[in-house]
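Task card 7
Instruction: Convert sequence to structure tokens.
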Amino acid sequence: MQSNGQLTFSLLSASEIAAALDDLARLRISVFAAWPYLYAGDAAYEARYLAQFAASEGAVVIAARDPAGRMVGAATAAPLADHASEFAIPFARAGLDPADYFYLAESVLEPAWRGQGAGKRFFEMREAAGRAQGFGRAVFAAVVRPEDHPARPADHVPHDGFWRRRGYRPLEGLVAQFRWPDLGATEETTKPLQVWGREL
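Output:
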């Protein structure tokens, strides 16, 4: 268990992940409702998605808890070969074996706790978990929205700089396609997600 003075971070064991899924679903629905995901959360979808994630023997959850012990943030990872097929498809098309990559999935944190180093800790602990499982490469995917999207906040600062400082770069030609309903929409639409990666 690690602490940054206020938040406490822990790597959940396989037996602890199932008990954390409700908190993870709550955080995903809340945090991903904001730009750039604009995700209209659905409990049934979350249950299906997280059940698939938790079934992976290599699944990892980093829990961030406040001083009262409440989970206020989480980051997840799993072998890419075990994750949603939408993320493996562009790798297969490029002639790359998904089994070679550790996939860093969610990184969600309640707004009140941002700016205290949680993002760095989430990456460090997931990368360490990937190395411990024998992976030499880590990847994640970030949604790409049009510059003129009407919901883009005027003060939005992309995370690209933070990701690059951690050694990640966009992987040319690797773009996943994933579907979810935007806030206010009645149907799911397909969004492109750019894959970023680095050597571990």
